Amino acid sequence: MLFDAGPRYSLESDAGNRVLLPLLKALDVQLDTVVLSHRDTDHVGGAAAVLMMQPQAALLSSIDPQHALQQLRQSSRCEAGQRWVWDGVDFEVLQPPAGAYEQQPALKANALSCVLRISNGRQTALLTGDIEAPQELQMLGDPYTASKLRADVLLVPHHGSKTSSTPEFLQAVQPRHALVQAGYRNRYGHPAAPVLDRYVALGTHLVLSPRCGAARWRSAEPQNVACMREDERHYWAHDVP
């Protein structure tokens, strides 16, 4: 499964062609499903390239029916309550509720982000897209969903933006590791320092993509996150301040 497909850099270049397809080929992986959290281009920019080269993969997303990707692969909507099991691993969609789609186009794309919980019964990962405070509080307000938020690994909501990672949400998740996907010195200022401070106060291990590069976490070794910039370091690489 692939969750989100990275950005489009130009008309000729995107994360699908430059990063994901070479990785999938190197790993000899055939995808069963591509999950796109929402329609923003930094999350779906590489999806077309992946879908064209992985014709067997189903598409699960919150993109609208008129989105160009629908021409490549008809998407099923991600809705809270969807659940499936692969090889003993449980996958469950926690957000958005089905009724949220009826509020388009008033809702921002971020508010429709698919939140996916993945658990083998011992370790859990929570993938959040770009949810913001209202969606975090909405999940906390539902007793069942709130009971499913605890996770070993959290994909930090909205790249560490000030709009997200509320104290109440972090108290419910209590992540051991928090992965922050954000470009080096990006124009948005992600991740925000006050947000990082909240994770540090919880004792969470922060993993920032500009410093780590590709991060690899395995449920068999839940205490460790491997960083490719460190583990496969080229002699010309330097530390990111």
Automatic annotation (TrEMBL):
CDD domains cross-referenced by the UniProt entry: ComA-like_MBL-fold (cd07731)
InterPro entries per record: ComA-like_MBL, Competence_DNA_uptake, RibonucZ/Hydroxyglut_hydro
Species annotation: Curvibacter symbiont subsp. Hydra magnipapillata
Name the record gives this protein: Metallo-beta-lactamase domain-containing protein
Family annotation (SUPFAM superfamilies): Metallo-hydrolase/oxidoreductase
Lineage start: Bacteria, Pseudomonadati, Pseudomonadota, Betaproteobacteria, Burkholderiales
